[in-house]
Amino acid sequence: MNKKTRSFQTKLRLLMIAGLVVLQAATLVAVHLAGRRAVQQTVSDELRVGARVLARVLESRGQQLAATASVLTADFAFREVVASGDRPTITSVLRNHGERIAADAVFLISLDGTVDADTLDNRFVDTPFPVRDLFASAQSGEPTSAISSFEHRAHQFVVVPVLAPVPIAYVGIGFAIDDKTLEEVRRLTSLHYSLLRASAGEREPVLASTLAGPARAELAQRVRALSPSSFAAPATLAMDSQSYATVIEPLLPGNEGDMQVVLQVSIDRARRAFRRLELQIFGLSTLALMGSLVGVTFLARGISLPLQRLAERAQGIGAGDYTATIEIGAQDELGQLASAFNQMQSGIREREEQIRHQATHDSLTGLPNRTLFLDRVQLAIDRARRQGGMVGMVMMDLDRFKEINDTLGHHFGDVVLCEIGRRLLAKVRASDTIARLGGDEFAVLFDTADPPGALEIARRVSTILEAPFAIGDLSIAVTASLGISLFPLHADDPGTLMKRADIAMYDAKKNNLATSMYESGRDDHSLRRLSILSELRQAISGSQLEVHYQPKVDFTTGRAVAAEALVRWQHPVHGPMPPGEFVPLAEQSGDIRMLTRWVLERAVTDCARWNREGLDLSVAVNLSALDLYDSQLPSVIEGLLRASGLEPTRLLVEITESAVMKDASHAGKILGELKDQGIVISIDDFGTGYSSLAHLRRLPVDELKIDRSFVIDLREEGREDLMIVRSTIELGHNMGLKVIAEGVESLETWKVLAKLGCDLAQGYFISRPMPSPQFEAWMRGAPWTPESSVVGRPG
Fold first, then answer.
1. Rg over CA atoms, the chain
2. CA gap 704, 686 in Å, rounded
3. CA-based angle 223:227:229, to the nearest 5?
4. SS (HEC) of 165-216
5. Both ends of the chain: CA-CA distance in Å?
6. Residues 510-523: b if buried by 16+ CB within 10 A, e if exposed
């Protein structure tokens, strides 16, 4: 442990020292980069200022020279000499005046620009004035000062007129710009100046410079090798073991080409101050680093020892020991860390207990969940194997619990589930286990001696639902379906035992029983249901489904005026399959919309063909409750009618009474859109639901269809069914609706309905459902009459 501690201390020291080194290195780099930028900016500023200073000095010098020349030309005696035309006298006057003002060259220029006299041994007499552009500017009255290369030296020339009172001649005076002149400017700016000509072929391109001999020679070589445009921006030149920031600026043009000035500043001199600053910072950083080594050593030791104790406690927590605590005694952050560590240990212990409970219990009711329930089932089975006896399981699923959630809200549903859990705990024995498996599904595990004992347990469980559930001002009755399975009678393992209790529960729900015990062979039925669910979509898209049609006959004419489309499935394995087996599965799986649209397309297509071929018929199609939630259904039907050419009034959709009442407002919206298209609306199975007349009156209904349960055994001597049918017919007629009776299977029933004033009839007495070709043949045969039909229920 000490080795590990020392290793951590070493790492901590190295880390902190490395951090300091990196910080100091970053500081030095930042200072260095800032220094370089500052040097560059300083050099650039000095070169720019130096160029302006040189321009201002030359400009001032030119003004002084021009003033001096003006004094000469204003002298009356000088003007007389010029007017006399005596060249020797003029030359003598020019020489004397040039010596007084230290001029290097003085010219008397005629009005045509020819030199009449000069102080250079008359070498330029009768030749054009050397600085022609300057003379032209003087004639036009523009600035009369210029710098030009003259006799391999840089000169500053001025030209002024000799007035008497109009110009009779011009005087040009030139002053050499030599190293001394540039040195005077250098004393003002600390820059080096060099004048050069950029013209090719110059023997001495550097005309004047403040540079020493070796550097001046190197500059001449660079000027020959590079064009001056290369130095438009500051460039670095190494000359005479020094680095110079160099720029080339143009001067005033002369008559022999452009004159340019090279401005240079020593970069080494500019960097010197920043190098001193860098050295000072480096020295201070080194001293700070050495002092930090001592502090880091003590700090690392003070941190590592408490951390060692924290690590030992963490190992204890990892091993599941939550009892010991850490006491450091310090009041600093490490002390706070130890306190937080102790709190964390306590929190982990509490959360582990909570997680363990949540992993095995339902969060809503607090009952054991599926995982814990299966564990206890396994323990009960193991105990029964050793001691004998049976293990029973009751699976309970609430009926129509989704409607409670949808109507009253999920909060109400949660309260109901919690109350069911409380009632179950109060009803069963302490040795039994109650679990909520999920949703509205509960399970009870118990020991029993025989199947009758299991039935008694199930009966006792079912009694918890006898009293309604009162929540606030609401009181609601809840029913459930219960399934029972037993070990070892029905299964040998927990999973199979639960599966078979679930099968028994679905049998109870399907057969409207409160309780059902598992029967051998029911697994095959469940597998059949799963097989049908998986194959139904393929059957819809394939060719296994077909539509049969059952005629609807008008009581007045005795003629068929419509047909109801009924889907049939010719399963390749199970054979002919009735709709009651696969349509509910389609509703459960969500495939009902696809199935409905397939039937609609076939029925609309067939009916359109019948009418084109002379059969005056309408067609009826059943809609599921889920179809009323399909907002696209009206547009789909409109498209089918348009594509087939069938009039909308030839299509009738039948909706069950209970389907409408699940969501009357939404159903009314969908049915209203269909009604607006001209489609006929019929309420199917009327009398079996719980719709109110107020809701029925607000729906766009055209027809009521009396449920077959009231019609199939209708007799003259009947009381209850006869009263219901009569009332329904009168109700429909009073509301302006047609009334059709389904399930007509005898002549007696036909006559009773005709006497009661029913409008239409449908049933086996008239005809069974037939495939489309057979139905068309039936329609084209002899007219149907009640007397020609087979009396009684067909076999």
1. 58
2. 6
3. 120
4. CCEEEEEEEEEEECHHHHHHHHHHHCCEEEEEECCCCCCCCEEEECCCHHHH
5. 94
6. eeeeebbbbeeebe
Q: Mean pLDDT across the stretch 137-156?
A: 79
For residue 746, give every residue at least 6 positions away whose Cβ sits within 8 Å of its Cβ, in sequence order, or none. Answer: 765, 791, 792, 793
Quote the mean pLDDT of the chain.
Answer: 81
Return the axis-axis angle of helices 333-360 and 267-318, rounded to nearest 10°: 50
Residues with Cβ within 8 Å of 730's Cβ and at least 6 positions away in sequence, in order, are none
Q: Which two tokens stand for residue 69?
A: 């020349």
SS3 content of the chain, % helix, strand, coil (to 5): 55, 20, 25
pTM: 0.43
Secondary structure of residue 716 in the 3-state scheme: coil
pLDDT at residue 98 is higher than 90: no
Q: What is the structure's pLDDT at 241?
A: 74
Helix (H) or strand (E) holding 421: helix 410-427
Closest CA to 644 of 611, 677, 674: 611
| Pairing state between β 192-197 and 206-209 | antiparallel
Cis peptide before 488 (omega within 30 of 0): yes
- The dihedrals phi and psi of 126, each to the nearest 5 degrees, come to 65, 20
Residue type, 363: S
Structure tokens belonging to residue 261: 């000035």
pLDDT digit string, tens, across residues 704-719: 999 888 898 888 876 7
| 582-605 mean pLDDT | 80
Most confident range (mean pLDDT) of 11-25, 277-291, 444-458 is 444-458
Closest CA to 127 of 146, 139, 110, 140: 110
SS3 670: helix
In the predicted structure, residue 375 carries a pLDDT above the cut 90:
yes
Q: What is the mean pLDDT of residues 26-31?
A: 79
Euclidean distance between CA atoms 618 and 648, whole angstroms: 10
For residues 239 and 110, what is the distance between their CA atoms, to the nearest angstrom?
47
Are 754 and 555 in contact by the 8 Å Cβ rule? The answer is yes
Q: What is the pLDDT of residue 607?
A: 95
Token pair, residue 782, equals 């002899």
Confidence check: pLDDT of 621 > 90: yes
Structure-block tokens of residue 134:
């300057």
What is the mean predicted confidence (pLDDT) over 564-574?
81
Phi first, then psi, for residue 738 (nearest 5°) are -80, 155
How confident is the model at residue 41, as a pLDDT?
80
Residue 650, C-beta contacts closer than 8 angstroms, at least 6 positions apart: 607, 608, 611, 617, 618, 619
Beta bridge partners of 108: 117, 171
More confident residue, 173 or 575: 173
CA dist 601 → 146, 584, 598, 646, 753 (Å): 103, 21, 5, 11, 33
Q: Who wins on pLDDT, 169 or 786?
A: 169
Element (H, E) at 779: helix 772-780
Q: CA-to-CA distance for 288 and 24, rounded, in angstroms?
A: 10
Q: What percent of the chain has pLDDT over 70?
A: 81
Query: Can you tell me the distance from the alpha carbon of 767 to that of 789, in angstroms, rounded to the nearest whole number?
Result: 8
Q: What is the 3-state secondary structure of 259-326?
A: EEEEEEEEHHHHHHHHHHHHHHHHHHHHHHHHHHHHHHHHHHHHHHHHHHHHHHHHHHHHCCCCCCCC
The number of beta carbons lying within 10 Å of the beta carbon of residue 187 is 8
